[in-house]
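Q: What structure does this chain adopt?
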Amino acid sequence: MSPTQGQVQTTSPVRSPGSRWRLQVVHRTRFSYSGPVRSSYNEARLTPESSTRQTTLRSRVEIEPAASAYAYRDYWGSTVTAFDLHTPHAELVVTGTSIVEAGPDLLNHDRLGWAALGSREVRDQFGELLAPTALTAVDEDVVAAVRDFVGGAHPHEAGPLVCRFVRDSMEYLSGSTNVKTNAMQAWRSGKGVCQDISHVTVGLLRALGLPARYVSGYLHPKPDAAIGAAVTGESHAWVEWWDGGWNGFDPTNSVEIGTRHVTLGRGRDYGDVPPFKGLFSGPSSEGHAVTVEVTRLA
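A:
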C-alpha cells in the first residue's frame, strides 16, 4: 500500500448481510505529553479483518498531526498501520473508523478427537498456539481442576466447558487489572477484565491439548441494539480453539461469537495484538485516553 498523509484506508466488496449486523466502530486514542515530543514511532492495529464471519466494508486510520503511514500484515495476520512523526508535537490522536458486517461463522468442519489432536502432525503445526506464554501460563492445580470439570467430553464440547469453568470462577471487574497482569495473578485474585478471562481460558485450553488463540476486537454491548443509536463501547477480547477447524467463544459474556463481535486480530496473547504501541523521544507522557463508539447501522 502506498503511503498517505495521516490516513490509511481499505475497502472490501459488499456481501449479502443475511443474519448479520452492520456495525460502525470509531476507536480514538489521545496521547498527551508534558511538552513537545521530538520523534515518535508507532503501530496501530485498528483495521478489522475480512473472513468467513465478517466483512470489512470500509476502514480508515487517521493520525493527528498528519504523518506518512503504511499498512502491512504482521506475522499473525493482523493489519498494522505503521507511522512515525519527526515534527514537535505535544499531543497525538489516532482514530480508527470502520464499517463491518458481522455474524456467526456458519462453516462446518470435521471434529477431531483427543488422539488426533495429540498427534505429532498437529503439535508441529500448532506448536506456537499450544505453548504457554508469560501472560497465559496456568499452574498445574488449576489444570487438574479443569480436567475434572471437563471429564470425558469430546474436544468440541470441552472448549465451551473450559469457558464456563473460567467464567464461573472469575468475576468481571473493570479496572481490577492492567495489560501486564498475567493469567495466574488474575486467577488468584478471582477477578479481572475480558483480557484476563481470555488469558486464563487460552492457557487452560492449551494445557488440555487444544490449540488456542487470543482474539482482540470489539463487542456491541446491547443484544437488542436500536439501529442508528451510537453507544459507548470498549476494546474486547475472546478466544478461539482448534479441533479440526476454528471455534470462537466469548468467555466473559458466555456467548458464541456472532453479530455483535468485530474481530481485529489474533495471536498468542494480548502482547501480539495491542491496539496501539509505540516509542517516543522527548518529555514525559501525561497519559492517554481511549474512547470507543459503536453504532448498529443495519
